[in-house]
């Protein structure tokens, strides 16, 4: 198996700069207040670079640069912008392993995922929106003999974007690609836990974008995120993060009457109907794999299938086989291509997950596997690893209702179809859901009855750029991906013309 070298060591794909300043107006700009913070790799728990600690003054400088760039960028032809997006995608593809290792080191997730999912999807995302913007058309209608009504798409101008730490590059690209395709300039604030990999991307594509079209200011939520989200100089704020922060973002935005898109938390049900176990075949095998998907990306996925609902008749069998599958998952050095479960993104997150594991035990839920920190050997001993954990309990428990954002699965049983849907929907959230059933009829019905923006049927964790993604209920507002995303980054101009 391939094990990538640690960044900065011999043969490694990437050497991080010792210090990252802000990326403003196409160059590195030191923070106005001169402060930096340490960036720690979850892989070994050690600092590896320091990053500018942004404040309102840095946000202002980034907004100046963005407003200086926005008019010209907004007037480029869609063909020109599409070409830029294609070039970014190509550059990323040529440097895929470098970006993947950078992302793994910053976030702790395994390289097999950053190579095959995070960076690969980010590349495709740029290509999708390069195509989408060229295919978009306005409308024209003849209202009467003398009046024509035209609808045009116009960019918003400068938009703000704030992202979390669980998919730093991919979440950045999900927001950047449609915003740029639509002709906007951007000020982006990454999460303070994972500030470095997105700067590596900025450096990589620096020569492909006009200066100021994308600006990245690092820093903490209230210090850097709030001045961005509450600035009267942005025309939209796009946010991905926790539901509680999402509420604040809406409040800030209300002061300036600007649109928000919010991609927030989840507590997604994964429903297994009795007929999945009709035979010991590849279908059943796929369902078992789906059961274990909660541990992918260390459970740090907003759509993590963190509640498994299993029908009475197959409960014992599927749970036993599922737990065995979880035990087989390989947790270890994230730089090893063989590793399936890596490190949690930060020590805070590690502690939060461990405290939820305690809460589950106190609530009387039964631990079937895992339930503790995993201390790896050698120089990874200080890394932030949690063993994939399966609890058995009831949907009313806190571990079934609150987002843990770790490799922790809560399993319960249901009797019939109505019970399944009731339990699945008994949550504040409505982001993702999984349905496993051989009967197409049953799967379709359940897919329609579950209150969630994305339901996977007989699959999970698939994020194609051309499928709309977003939340019902407290999981958010608006959609990302798909053509409809362009609407979130454009104004409609109507021109009524008489001759
Ligand atoms: P978070 O809300 O703590 O932080 C997200 C970002 O918001 C960070 O950049 C942070 O610095 C910034 N921020 C914090 N307080 C702020 C404030 N007052 N004003 C402006 N910005 C502020 O979330 P997190 O812990 O980084 O991310 C995990 C959460 O993200 C989970 O709830 C997860 O479900 C969610 N998430 C959702 C999706 C989705 O598409 N729905 C995708 C990934 C993650």
Secondary structure blueprint with pairings:
Blueprint: E1 19-20, E2 22-24, E3 27-29, E4 36-41, E5 46-52, H1 56-74, H2 78-94, H3 96-107, H4 111-135, E6 139-144, E7 147-155, E8 158-162, H5 168-181, E9 185-189, H6 197-204, E10 214-216, H7 221-229, E11 237-240, H8 243-256, E12 260-263, E13 269-272, H9 282-292, E14 307-311, H10 315-327, H11 347-362, E15 366-369, E16 389-392, H12 398-401, E17 408-414, H13 417-425, E18 429-430, E19 432-436, H14 440-449, E20 454-457, E21 472-473, E22 476-477, H15 484-487, E23 490-498
Parallel strand pairs: 1-5, 8-9, 8-11, 9-10, 11-12, 13-14, 13-19, 14-17, 16-17, 19-20
Antiparallel strand pairs: 2-3, 4-5, 6-7, 7-23, 12-22, 15-16, 18-21
Nicotinamide-adenine-dinucleotide (NAD) binds next to helix 7 and helix 8.
Describe this structure in words.
Keywords: Oxidoreductase. It comes from Kocuria sediminis. Residues 28-494 form the Aldehyde dehydrogenase domain. Belongs to the aldehyde dehydrogenase family. By secondary structure, the protein is of the alpha/beta class. It has 15 helices and 23 strands. The strands form six sheets. Strands 15-16-17-14-13-19-20 form a seven-stranded mixed β-sheet, with helices on both faces. Helix 2 runs antiparallel to helix 4. It is globular and about 70 Å long. It binds nicotinamide-adenine-dinucleotide. Nicotinamide-adenine-dinucleotide (NAD) is lined by residues 162-166, 171, 189, 191-192, 220-222, 225-226, 229, 240-242, 245, 248, 263-266, 302, 403, 405, 431, 471, 476. Nicotinamide-adenine-dinucleotide is lined by residues 162-166, 171, 189, 191-192, 220-222, 225-226, 229, 240-242, 245, 248, 263-266, 302, 403, 405, 431, 471, 476.
């Amino acid at each position: 198996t391939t094990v990538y070298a640690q960044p900065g060591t011999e043969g490694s794909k990437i050497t991080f700069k010792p210090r990252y300043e802000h990326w403003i107006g196409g160059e590195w700009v030191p923070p106005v207040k001169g402060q930096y913070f340490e960036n720690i790799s979850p892989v070994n728990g050690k600092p590896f670079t320091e990053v500018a600690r942004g404040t309102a003054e840095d946000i202002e400088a980034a907004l100046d640069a963005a407003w200086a760039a926005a008019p010209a960028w907004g007037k480029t032809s869609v063909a020109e912008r599409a070409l830029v997006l294609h070039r970014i995608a190509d550059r990323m593809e040529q440097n895929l392993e470098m970006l993947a290792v950078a992302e793994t080191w910053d976030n702790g997730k395994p390289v097999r995922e950053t190579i095959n999912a995070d960076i690969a999807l980010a590349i495709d995302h740029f290509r999708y929106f390069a195509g989408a913007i060229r295919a978009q058309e306005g409308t024209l209608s003849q209202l009467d003999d003398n009046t024509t009504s035209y609808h045009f798409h116009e960019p918003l101008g400068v938009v703000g974007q704030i992202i979390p730490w669980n998919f730093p590059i991919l979440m950045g690209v999900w927001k950047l690609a449609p915003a740029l395709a639509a002709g906007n300039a951007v000020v982006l604030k990454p999460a303070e836990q994972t500030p470095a990999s997105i700067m590596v991307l900025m450096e990589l594509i620096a020569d492909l974008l006009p200066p100021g079209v994308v600006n990245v200011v690092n820093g903490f939520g209230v210090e850097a995120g709030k001045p961005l989200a509450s600035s009267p100089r942005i025309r939209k704020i796009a946010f991905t993060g926790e539901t509680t922060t999402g509420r604040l973002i809406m409040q800030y935005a209300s002061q300036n009457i600007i649109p928000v898109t919010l991609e927030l938390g989840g507590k997604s049900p994964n429903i297994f109907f009795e007929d999945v176990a009709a035979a010991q075949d590849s279908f059943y095998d796929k369902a078992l794999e789906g059961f274990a998907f909660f541990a992918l990306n260390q459970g740090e996925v907003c759509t993590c299938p963190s509640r498994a609902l299993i029908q009475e008749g197959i409960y014992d069998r599927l749970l036993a086989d599922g737990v065995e599958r979880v035990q087989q998952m390989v947790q270890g050095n994230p730089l090893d291509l063989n590793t399936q479960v890596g490190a949690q993104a930060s020590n805070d997150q590690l502690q939060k997950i461990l405290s939820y594991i305690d809460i589950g035990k106190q609530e009387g839920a039964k631990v079937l596997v895992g339930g503790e920190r995993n201390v790896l050997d050698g120089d990874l001993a200080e890394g932030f690893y949690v063993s994939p954990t399966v609890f058995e309990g009831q949907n009313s428990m806190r571990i079934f209702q609150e987002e843990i954002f770790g490799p922790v699965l809560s399993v319960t049983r249901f009797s019939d179809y109505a019970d399944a849907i009731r339990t699945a929907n008994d949550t504040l959230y409505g982001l993702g859901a999984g349905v496993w059933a051989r009967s197409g009829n049953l799967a379709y019905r359940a897919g329609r009855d579950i209150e969630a923006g994305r339901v996977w049927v007989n699959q999970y964790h698939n994020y194609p750029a051309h499928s709309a993604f977003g939340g019902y209920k407290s999981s958010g507002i608006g959609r990302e991906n798909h053509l409809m995303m362009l609407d979130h980054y454009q104004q409609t101009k109507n021109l009524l013309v008489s001759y």
